[in-house]
Request: fold
Amino acid sequence: MARFMLPIAAVLGLAVVLMIGLTRDPSKLPSPFIDKAAPTFDLPSLAHPEQRVGSASYAGQIVLVNIWATWCVGCRQEHEFLNQLQRQDIIPIYGINWRDNRNDATRWLRELGDPYVDSGYDGDGRVGIDWGAYGAPETFLINAQGIVLYKHLGPLNSFVWESVFVPLIAAEETAG
Amino acid sequence: MLRRFATRIVVVILLALGAGSAFAIDTGKAFDDPVLQARYEHIIAEVRCLKCQNQTIKDSNAFLAADLRREIRRMLEEGMSDAEIYDFLVERYGEFALYRPRASGKTLFLWIAPGVLLLGGAFLLVQVVRRRMALPIDEDL
Reply:
């Protein structure tokens, strides 16, 4: 009997590893920016093309940077939640309007509400690449030192917010 | 009549053969310098389209693939080396962006695992065969 223990253990071990693999979504990639300096950006403002908005606008603050577009279904799903965050004055949110049409984006914010302090207009996707964007919506949590604490891929909601963002923000506030 | 039919068949086959070129994804202008063009084509065949993960950015017409091709084109024009271009992509998208992840601490396991498994299997095989060969052949079962 003992001679079968090793092969059986090996097969069970492999099964466990593969089972864990099945529960993970391969379309969600780990961001290489976690715990590193956030990328920067400097874009014309969506609402006021003559003004600039960028990482300089939020230096020294803990903020969310949200990559969004009107073609993105998940962005619509999370939009009301972002509005809530803004209404409750929980954290400043900066938008990067990625690969979008300026008129569509402006109308979207007028109709659905504008949760952003400001949004930069990244029409050609150049800034999106700097942020490693590949599937909007993507939301970065950036601390006052400009370090990325977390990146969430897909729509934000109260469950993700309470379970991931709130503890990270609380830890940051006690540390700072 | 039959001859006209045969001609039609031939025309259809020729058209079908030519259809492949109608699916060209990359509509950008070719480089004037053939060396740059060759490097460009090599690189875009090595980079994964993150939006459509089982395609290279050469094969994908997702806008992200088009944006990445445009950036690679720009970097080549600016005289960056292949290694610098791969670094640019890995910094932003991680090793996963490359179809052939580079041997680094994080990806070392990917590179050595096949060899380790092969050697382990060979070792076990030798062990089992040796043990069986040591058994007396005329042993009663």
Observations:
- Helices of chain B lie at 2-22, 34-44, 63-77, 82-93, 108-134.
- The domain at 26-102 of chain B is CATH 1.10.8.640 (Helicase, Ruva Protein; domain 3).
- The CA atoms of residues 57 and 66 of chain B lie 7 Å apart.
- Chain B has a mean pLDDT of 85.
